[in-house]
Amino acid sequence: MAWIKVCQVSDIDEYMPKAVDVAETKIGIFQLNNKYFAIENVCPHAYALLTEGFVEDGTVECPLHEAIFDIETGNLESGPGCRNLCTYPVKIEGESVLISLEKSE
Ligand code: FES
């Protein structure tokens, strides 16, 4: 699996996810309970960046029409999100956050 360094752990906190572009793919890096998750950052309903949404109880709410996605699984919980989000493997090496573009699902 090819790993790509995308940011530092200090760039992210629970309520401030990080938007990154990797090979023209927009990905959001989120932190929950000191674990890190990478999910597709563009809401499938219309074009909105989920890293600009609202993080609460392990979910992120789309800033445009309020679809709610589970951050860990990418699953659509409610609202007009159309489908689940792609998720990507994440690993931490020292202070660096690395992801792989191999989709977890
Ligand atoms: S753009 Fe996300 S719910 Fe509409």
UniProtKB/TrEMBL annotation:
Pfam families noted in UniProt: Rieske (PF00355)
UniProt xrefs under InterPro entries: Rieske_2Fe-2S
Domain Rieske per the UniProt entry, residue ranges: 4-99
Protein name: Non-heme iron oxygenase ferredoxin subunit
